[in-house]
């Protein structure tokens, strides 16, 4: 089973994007950074107790699923949309959603367009091999307007073409649009159109048929989300472990009560390690893509359910 | 040196030399870059003369005869061939070239054309001779060099001696007034040398003006009416063959002859 | 003294399998074949097992399902409801398009550069050397992305053509627009069109186009006749009549007549909406790929051309010059016919390389066969094995066809030699 | 007719050529303005050079080396050279050049790849230069084991045990061919080492490591990246493809029909498909072809496919070398009683390989350039890395600087290699043969 | 034809012919594809014999001697060399080859090995002689062919005559019982022919069994004890040299001799 493999190997193999602003990219020291990357680190911390025990395997839109299917990676955290055919036909298990996204358009303000429906005849840049490509085709078909797709391999190239005016609009997951816009010389000259033409729940996935491993990843993600809900942060977690609170849910999460860890086949403090790796969900969000970063994404749908968002960790019980 | 031609009887009667100047070279100088390869060449050649040029390797023999049909450019002095001065004027050069035939050491036949095509190419494209006529002329000269039966073969299928004879025939097809030979036999096996020399002797007997760079001293003695000895880019001595070989004047000539005949 | 006995009768011993020349060959081959089949069986068995455990048995059925994605450049009609198979066909045609265009341009540039490299002009020869070395020693993929980046960054966007004092303007009296989305050139249109001819119900061929081809072909044939006649006259009289105007006329006049009859006119590109509309749009991805492949390959072709010309010894030129032939004639009658034999084989293998390298189209998003079948289709259906095998098969067939042409040419040329 | 005799008693001294044909003027006239057409070409060329330089130079020179992000770069350039100046942001190279060169290789271990590639170069020297002492050939023999060990690290016993396989093969050849004859010896020499490598070598290496632990820090191939990845793939592929190529070439030359068919089929197949499809096989399919559960990492898989790719080209190069050998050499070897393998080893291969060296070098250059394609399947070679670097918020938007740097790296490497192969070609041509 | 060896005194005393059969060829036939190149060859060669094979080009001389060490396969009849029949058995072939030395027209030295290595290669790898011993033997034979001082040079550095002598020494190092020569002097310049013929004469004087395809009639007269004339793949005539040259029986032989001696 994957869990045992990972443990005996002492390393977690994690598939990431070869480079996507805010979600995964190697920094100057060669350390991978980003929102997707952080999830892998959390899983590594939970399973192996060491957040740096991760091998990052950069994958492209094409190679990502094979890498996972062939066992080259244990978990794919590469802004991958949870779709029916990927889950059912390609035989993967999506363990949850770490970012609720949707496909949007960015256009230069000077174009004078305020709705995607006005894009009749426009040239649209799009990354190939993604769900966005299919969504786009559907959107224009449904609205019975024409467009010209400009397929592109990487987001960096898409951005280059868009900025030079080789395409009128650029479409991808709204998170990507925001990230891209943030690095423009003059971000204010571009608008993200109001239409979100698809649902893009991005989440980590594992191979079909290894439920134990899927549980580990699923509940690590849930632990991060729940931690935010209960106010457990990397700052106060040591304190909370040392002096368990009166909230049994928190105690169970932190392993000071019950033996949830053992049920997963992990040490009792698995969630503590995972949360300490980079912080709870909210902390990670703020650190890599939130308002304080150049990318500056608002929580939006990705707020806790208590705040009107969609994040809703099942109970730790 | 082969003296295979020695036992041939030479008919010198038709080898008269006319009074008309064929080539007039005056104070000609040539440099390769800074290297002074031909120095102060003065040479008058009359129609019907058979000149043999000899000299040590690198003395400029090839360069001299290549200047005569402007394969090389000279930088000073003048060369007048058949009344036409060689300048940068392309028309003059064309005229001279079509009146001067040249045979090279390595034959330089065109391997992609048959022997016949080799011979008719220039007449057709330069002289604008009808193809049929050109072919007839070609066959005539091929017969003269004794290989009419090879006409439809390719050069690669012929022996060296045969190839050189084709090369001679090819030049003759342009009906040149002057023939230049640059060591025509030095790339050949001994048996083949004879074939080629025989052909050249025959040409000489018909009164063709010839300038021939060669070290075949037997040929020089029998055929030439003048031998020119070059060294260091200069004409050091010229004389009739008998006098040249038996009584050389300059020390350099003596040295050279002792080496070449000493073999 | 050895006495001669009858030679021992051949009785089969096991040792003969190894030490008898007749059986040895057989033994080795049987062993090799066995090993080979074992290896093949092992690989196939593994594959089948792996696929079975993944629940993805080999199945080409996906080819007939709807592709659902759009392709921006299609030579035959296509929309996103067509099958993956048709999408692949669109890709294949795009591959062939860029390969043919590339081979043509590469030949022109390569021959030019190869000849210029031999130029007596020092500066020109140096520049050509720099060009050749620069292109040969940097990976072609880098050249492709370079070319794309240059196009995108240095040409104006369509929006720059808009407005009163637009920063960019169309060329040739508003007929050609060079933009960073590609080049827009006038398209031929016919007022009295003959319509289309459906072929196998799969795609349409314009009858106008066919008619033009036919007239052009006939014109060229007539021009050939005139040429043969000129040859004949030259053979007979030695004088070659000047016929270029006749030959030109015989090609052009009927063509012009046909065009007039069809009501030929140009459709000019025009800035409408977001883009130029009308005219032929050569996309930047196609142009970048085309230029990069051509110039990269041209560097190699230039070397072949230079080598070919150098291989024809100086002696050949001199001999021809000594016969009084003019430089132009020397080139066409003596040097080129010989150089061709040396040049053509490497030339064709460069065509092969160019065609294979066109698979790098995905780097600039040109939708060739690797981009459709080996890219989006593979990605959306998850049928890696089928797609990659099919892809290889297609390239293999193209390569073998090109090699066959090369072999045919080689044997033909060899016959002429001896 | 005038008197024909002439004797020169005083030799004409060498004179300087007329001024128009030498010196700078002569040179200009000769090389740049020898005809009106040439003059026009010269002017056009000068125009072209001016155009290129006037566009490129300011950009290259008016640049920033110190910024820590693209935005900062723009500010610095605007501050230094005035608003609206566009200049290069070389700062990204300063910050990332080590990454572009070494990928994720641990920075304290950079000496290892450097040493390894230096060693590989040294090992090549005695093969190429016959003048060097023959004893250096031991270095060449050791390099294939030492270089990978330096690159990947780990226990020293692994390469030792792998090398031992060759020793075992040789021993098997000796023993078995003495006992059971030549062909059996050859078969044994093939089978024994393979068995050893497959089943025993790893055990033995593990045992030895347990008894006598000695090793250096292991580095996973995932840490390989950048230019080092290109060189590693190229070097390993070429080294391995040499023996495979030899076997294929011999097979293709052989008159055994089935063997010939297999070899021709393989060679033509590999040469008929683009490398990118083979890389797809490496990244998508190769694991399917292996027994369920085997998993080797993507770089190894890529190396396998690139090796197969290089082998096919190598086979053709070597076939050319074999074809260039006169038949007499084979016959002389036969007449002396040398059997097939001995003749190949002692007579044919040494000569054929020597003839093939320029071809081998140019195959190497080709393969090396083609390693850039691995970026398409997500490996971080220099080109792949340039994308990852641009995925950092600071460097998003940097294009030319990265491409330019990578192109320069490749150019320097390939150009020197190609010059070197030309030198070899010249040397081989003049060498007595 | 060169008869440079004529003025050499030949010691025929040691050139006795034994009663033992060295090579027995019986009803041997060979085809190249459908072309019948050797027809019904019957030939017995005794130990110590010196056979010269001659005949027009294409008559199958080379093919015949190449059959003897199985460089070519024959299709019918038998060839027994030193008691070993040449069949498809590789072991027999190896045995025969190591007892039969062969010298080719174009020497076929191994250019990548020094002269000494050329000579020691086969002894070391085929005969399994220790290197030291092999080198001693090699030096011995190199002395015999009078070029011991060249031992450490490469073949490319030697003249043609020297190369051919090395080739002979190389064969001798295998201590063969029989030596085959295929036109060993025809690729050489006249001066060098003498060197090589001298070496061969010396060999003959030591009683080596030799079969030599050559047109050196001087050599044949002095050394051979039998001359074999072949034409169209058949042995047309064989006789002692004096009888063969002075009194040829067959018309073909006469024609051939008139051509070859008429030069
Ligand atoms: N293209 C050239 N460039 C520079 N130097 C040259 C060139 N061609 C010939 N030379 C030099 O000019 C000199 C004369 O050469 P030329 O070929 O005329 O000599 P030659 O008398 O014909 O000698 P040979 O008997 O060897 O043919 C030689 O020193 C030669 O090196
Ligand atoms: N490998 C071959 N395949 C087909 N025919 C061959 C082959 N080798 C030789 N022949 C033919 O066999 C005939 C005899 O050839 P062989 O070389 O034995 O003649 P030869 O007497 O040695 O002639 P030469 O004096 O020219 O060497 C010739 O007609 C030749 O064309
Ligand atoms: N841009 C991407 O690489 C991912 C796009 C999209 N979320 C997908 O899964 O296909
Ligand atoms: Mg000369
Ligand atoms: Mg022969």
From TrEMBL, chains B, E:
Keywords: ATP-binding, Nucleotide-binding, Transport. InterPro entries: AAA+_ATPase, ABC_ATPase_HisP-typ, ABC_transporter-like_ATP-bd, ABC_transporter-like_CS, MetN_ABC_transporter-like, P-loop_NTPase. Residues 23-257 form the ABC transporter domain. Gene3D superfamilies: P-loop containing nucleotide triphosphate hydrolases (3.40.50.300). SUPFAM superfamilies: P-loop containing nucleoside triphosphate hydrolases. GO terms for molecular function: ABC-type amino acid transporter activity; ATP binding; ATP hydrolysis activity. It comes from the Bacteria. Belongs to the ABC transporter superfamily. This is L-glutamine ABC transporter ATP-binding protein /L-glutamate ABC transporter ATP-binding protein /L-aspartate ABC transporter ATP-binding protein /L-asparagine ABC transporter ATP-binding protein.
From TrEMBL, chain C:
Gene3D superfamilies: MetI-like. One of its GO terms (biological process) is amino acid transport. Residues 92-406 form the ABC transmembrane type-1 domain. Keywords: Amino-acid transport, Cell membrane, Membrane, Transmembrane, Transmembrane helix, Transport. This is L-glutamine ABC transporter membrane protein /L-glutamate ABC transporter membrane protein /L-aspartate ABC transporter membrane protein /L-asparagine ABC transporter membrane protein. One of its GO terms (cellular component) is ATP-binding cassette (ABC) transporter complex. Belongs to the binding-protein-dependent transport system permease family. HisMQ subfamily. NCBIfam families: HEQRo_perm_3TM. It is a multi-pass membrane protein. The chain crosses the membrane at residues 23-44, 96-118, 130-152, 199-223, 244-267, 287-309, 388-409. InterPro entries: AA_ABC_transptr_permease_3TM, ArtM/GltK/GlnP/TcyL/YhdX-like, MetI-like, MetI-like_sf. It comes from Rhodovulum euryhalinum. It comes from the Bacteria. It is found in: Cell inner membrane; Cell membrane. GO terms for molecular function: transmembrane transporter activity. The lineage of its organism: Bacteria, Pseudomonadati, Pseudomonadota, Alphaproteobacteria, Rhodobacterales. The keyword Repeat does not apply. PANTHER family: AMINO-ACID ABC TRANSPORTER PERMEASE PROTEIN YHDX-RELATED, MEMBRANE COMPONENT OF AMINO ACID ABC TRANSPORTER.
From TrEMBL, chain D:
Keywords: Cell membrane, Membrane, Transmembrane, Transmembrane helix, Transport. PROSITE patterns: ABC_TM1. It comes from the Bacteria. It is a multi-pass membrane protein. The chain crosses the membrane at residues 39-61, 109-129, 136-151, 183-212, 224-250, 262-286, 298-318, 355-380, 400-420. The keyword Cell membrane applies. Its main location: membrane. One of its GO terms (molecular function) is transmembrane transporter activity. Residues 227-421 form the ABC transmembrane type-1 domain. One of its GO terms (biological process) is amino acid transport. GO terms for cellular component: ATP-binding cassette (ABC) transporter complex. It is found in: Cell inner membrane; Cell membrane. Belongs to the binding-protein-dependent transport system permease family. HisMQ subfamily. This is L-glutamine ABC transporter membrane protein /L-glutamate ABC transporter membrane protein /L-aspartate ABC transporter membrane protein /L-asparagine ABC transporter membrane protein. The lineage of its organism: Bacteria, Pseudomonadati, Pseudomonadota, Alphaproteobacteria, Rhodobacterales.
